[in-house]
Amino acid sequence: xxxxxxxxxxxxxxxxxxxxxDAKRGLKAIIAIHDTRLGPAHGGARYWTYDAPQDAxxxxxxxxxxxxxxxxxxxxxxxxxxxxxxAERGQPKTANLLEAFGxxxxxxxxxxxxxxDVGISPNDVTTIARRTAHVCGLPTGGDDAAADxxxxxxxxxxxxxxxxxxxxxxxxxxxxxxxVVQGLGGVGSPLCDMLVAEGARLVLSDxxxxxAARVADRTGSRVVSADQIYDVDAxxxxxxxxxxxxxxxxxxxxxxxLVCGGANNQLATADDGVALQRRGIVYLPDFVVxxxxxxxxxxxxxxWTHEKVxxxxxxxxxxxxxVLERATREEIxxxxxxxxxxxxxxxxxxxx
Length: 352
Ligand code: NAD
Hints:
Blueprint: H1 2-7, E1 16-22, E2 27-35, E3 41-42, E4 45-48, H2 53-73, E5 79-86, H3 95-107, E6 112-113, H4 122-128, H5 144-147, H6 150-169, E7 178-182, H7 188-197, E8 201-205, H8 209-219, E9 222-223, E10 236-239, E11 258-259, H9 270-278, E12 282-283, H10 286-289, H11 292-297, H12 299-302, H13 306-313, H14 316-330, H15 334-346
Parallel strand pairs: 3-5, 3-6, 4-5, 7-8, 7-10, 8-9, 10-11, 11-12
Antiparallel strand pairs: 1-2, 2-5
Helix pairs in contact: 2-15, 3-4, 6-7, 6-14, 14-15
Bound molecules: nicotinamide-adenine-dinucleotide.
C-alpha cells in the first residue's frame, strides 16, 4: 500500500499520512498532513463509507492538499490537513468510535487540528473533544447553529458567484439568472436562500429527496434528478455536494457559463480545469470560493471577532479577481493560477 501511496499524484509530498486503527472501538481512519509551513495543519474530519481503502486515502490526500491552498489564500495561520473516518456500510457513529478518533488526533500533539466536515456535526466534534484539545468549531454554550460553518461557506460562495458573473457579463446582478444547485445540505441550503433573495431562479438536486422537496418548497424552485443536473440549461452550476463532479463524463454535458460552488475538490483531475476552459466555462477554484467556513471555525483559534470573520469572507471576490487576472495573464486555467498564488504565499514570496 505504501509504495502505491507514494506514487499517487495526490500524494504530492505530504509531510505525514497517519493510519489510525482501533479495532475494539471500531475505528479506521486516515489523517493526512500536507504542509505545515504556515502553521499547524487544519482541516475537517469526514465520516464516510468508501468502496475501497484506496478511495479513502485518495480522498484524504486530495482534501488535505486543498486545505493547504485554502488556508494560505484565506490568510489563515494554518497549514493543510484533513482526516477521514472510514465507516463500514451501516456502521453507527458511536461515541466510542469518535473518542478513539480523538485519541489518535491527540497523539499527533497539535500537528493536526480538526473541525467538522461531511458526516461530522458540531456535536460529534464535542464528543471528539473529550479526548483531544486539538479541535475547533465547537458549539459555544451548546449552540450548534452558531458553530455551523455552512452559512459562512455559503456566504462566500454567494459573493464569489456575483464576482464571477461580473467577470463574464459585466454585471453581478443575480436577478433572472438560473443557478443549478447540487447538494442541499449545510452549504447548499443557505446558499439557495441567498440566491432567491437576490432574484435568482433555482434548479435543485439532492440524493435525499425529502431534503430536495423541502428546499424546493421554501424557495419555489424545481427539482431534477442527480444525473439530470448536468444537462440543465442555466447560467451557473453550483456544486455543493461531494467532489469530482467536474470530470470527463460531465464537462461535455454542461450548458452553463460559470461554475461556482462550495464542494471541495470539484475537478476530478487537473486536466478537467483545462477542459472547462476550452469549453468557455469559467471555473472559480473551489478552495478560493469555499473558505468562509474555515475562516469561521478557526476563529476559535485566531480569536477573530464575528465582524472580522465576515470582513475576511468579504475578501473572497477580490482574491478571485486576482486569480482570474493571473490566469489570463499567464494563459493558464484558474485552478492552476490559484495554486500558484497560494504557493507564493506559503513560500513567503507574496502576502495573502
Ligand atoms: P452536507 O453533508 O450537509 O450536505 C451535502 C448534501 O449533498 C447532502 O444533502 C447529500 O444528500 C447531497 N449529495 C451527496 N451527493 C450528491 C449527489 N451526487 N447529487 C446531489 N446531492 C448529493 O455537506 P455540506 O456541509 O453542505 O458540504 C457540502 C460540500 O461542501 C462538501 O464537499 C464539503 O466538503 C464542502 N465544504 C463544506 C463546508 C462547510 O462549511 N460545511 C466548507 C467548505 C467545503
